[in-house]
Design a protein that fits this description.
mainly alpha
Length: 135
């Protein structure tokens, strides 16, 4: 993300928007591929329409279980998946709104701020993983 920010700063103003869109699209695809792989395809972070479909499926399965149409042996599993999908969709919505507002107020500097936050989170994750490996 920081590299994208640096690239955009060096471009003429007329080329910044197309490169920003392409760069962010690439980064979202990369993020989605990583999260999908790590979660075992339980979460697809950039496919909101798929999450909305999953929310509908989970709701209908829970309704069928409540009516006795389906066996209720896996209610906890469906509730857990429903919670995960609702939280992900809500976070995507809030992040999108906040991202637009922040970009409008601070411009391309948002890319560097976001890159710094991602580096800090990654460093924390790497530190905890190494600490667990050493234990």
């Amino acid at each position: 993300m920081g590299l994208l920010g640096a690239l955009i700063l060096g471009l003429p103003v007329t080329l910044r928007a197309p490169f920003l869109i392409l760069g962010l699209s690439f980064l979202m695809g990369l993020q989605n591929a990583i999260v999908t792989t790590i979660s075992g395809a339980r979460v697809r972070t950039t496919h909101v329409s798929g999450m909305a479909t999953d929310i509908g499926i989970e709701l209908m399965m829970l309704l069928d279980m409540a009516r006795g149409v389906e066996p209720s042996t896996e209610v906890g599993s469906y509730r857990s998946k429903l919670r995960l999908h609702v939280q992900t969709a809500f976070a995507f919505l809030i992040g999108g709104v906040c991202g637009v507002m922040l970009y409008q107020s601070i411009g391309n500097r948002l890319l560097f701020v976001t890159a710094s936050l991602l580096i800090a989170m990654a460093a924390n994750g790497i530190y905890r993983a190494q600490k667990m490996a050493w234990a």
